[in-house]
Write a structure and sequence with these properties.
Mean pLDDT: 97
Largest sheet: 7 strands, parallel
Strand order of the largest sheet: 8-7-6-9-10-11-12
Radius of gyration: 22 Å
Helix content: 25-40%
CATH superfamily of the largest domain: NAD(P)-binding Rossmann-like Domain
Low-confidence stretches: none
Strand content: 15-25%
Bound molecules: NADPH dihydro-nicotinamide-adenine-dinucleotide phosphate, oxalic acid
Structural class: alpha/beta
CATH architecture of the largest domain: 3-Layer(aba) Sandwich
């Protein structure tokens, strides 16, 4: 006898599957939820992070493939069955974390808290001349779910904010630029660059020497915050720009190889702050609630948000 229950498989690399399975079972009691193992019976939907190709080859009938992250670059390297809808997490608690991280990093740099910390450790009571917000225009690359939230949070602190996206936008409080044609103007008008682009064939390596030299109208003093993907940055281009003083510093949360290998020069560079890909963590409860709601909607034939355009890459 075949079951008419919706069948969901969970296939997570780097995450314990049990709490996801329990959470999905609780949120979707009408569904059958199981951990994937080779040879598993065909499923209707899957909840995944970095699954092996074998998983997708074994499941050609999937209708929904739910990624437990916002970025789908790793998933789109695989051959996804043509009728399967790939669905990314839509915020699910990440945008507030990203806004905290970027505001903290920006303010730490602008207010020179890193230098004050060093002075305090040396037992020195020293003042520094306050800097002007108007000299620290922030440029946010990517005005999607995370980028727009970050740009608005930064604007709350009265920094001038520019945003750059693929399609033209009008967002209150932001100067918006769009497309390749306006990229150089965006860079020239921005001093602190925040990367929140998806990793696609158009954006890989976009944080290059050529790009970074255009920051701040070509004047020294630019600052880079990369919170999107390591492969956006050309690693070898960054260090000479920091050493020459063209860039004042960089905070990097994401790396081409993760964990960042021991001995990588980013670890020890005095102008680089490294964090371990944690600027916005997946929140399990919120993510399960979002995915369960979307599975129900799909089962009823209703439209859902966050469906990835596989050709475009995000
Ligand atoms: P969205 O898909 O919602 O937004 C992407 C934005 O980038 C859109 O504004 C889009 O433009 C713009 N964009 C895409 N391609 C280009 C291009 N070629 N030129 C200019 N703009 C472009 O993504 P999210 O905001 O949800 O997430 C962004 C990325 O953040 C993820 O892909 C992931 O890599 C990273 N991330 C990192 C985390 C971490 O912990 N470090 C956590 C979560 C996500 P348009 O609006 O015109 O389509
Ligand atoms: C994501 C991430 O894409 O965690 O959600 O990087």
């Amino acid at each position: 006898m075949t079951s008419s229950r919706i069948r969901i498989l969970v296939c997570l690399t780097d995450n314990r599957p049990e709490p996801w399975i329990e959470g999905l079972r609780a949120a979707l009691p009408e569904a059958e939820v199981e951990n994937w193992a080779p040879g598993a019976a065909p499923a209707d939907h899957a909840v995944v992070w970095a699954p092996p190709q074998q998983f997708l080859d074994d499941q050609p009938g999937l209708r929904g493939l739910f990624n437990i992250g916002a970025g789908v670059d790793a998933l789109l390297k695989l051959r996804v069955p043509p009728q399967t809808q790939v669905v990314r997490l839509d915020d699910a608690g990440m945008s507030v974390q990203m806004a905290e991280y970027v505001c903290h990093t920006l303010i730490r740099h602008f207010r020179e808290f890193d230098l004050y910390e060093a002075e305090a450790r040396a037992g020195r009571w020293s003042y520094r001349k306050p800097r002007e917000r108007r000299d620290f225009t922030v440029g946010v690359m990517g005005l999607g779910v995370l980028g727009e939230r970050v740009a608005k949070a930064v604007a709350q602190f009265e920094f001038p904010v520019n945003g750059w996206s693929r399609s033209a936008k009008a967002i209150d409080g932001l100067r918006c630029f769009a497309g390749e044609a306006q990229f150089d103007d965006f860079l020239g008008a921005s001093r602190v660059l925040v990367n929140l682009l998806p990793l696609t064939s158009d954006t890989r390596g976009i944080l290059s020497r050529e790009t970074l030299l255009k920051l701040n109208g070509g004047r020294p003093g630019g600052y880079l915050i990369n919170v999107a993907r390591g492969a956006h940055l050309v690693d070898d281009d960054l260090i000479p720009l920091l050493d020459s003083g063209q860039l004042a510093g960089a905070t990097l949360d994401v790396f081409d190889v993760e964990p960042l290998p021991a001995g990588h020069p980013f670890w020890s560079h005095p102008k680089i702050t490294v964090t371990p890909h944690g600027s916005a963590r997946t929140e399990r409860e919120a993510s399960i609630a979002q995915i369960a709601g979307k599975i129900r909607a799909m089962e009823q034939g209703a439209p859902i948000a966050g469906v990835v355009d596989v050709e475009r890459g995000y």
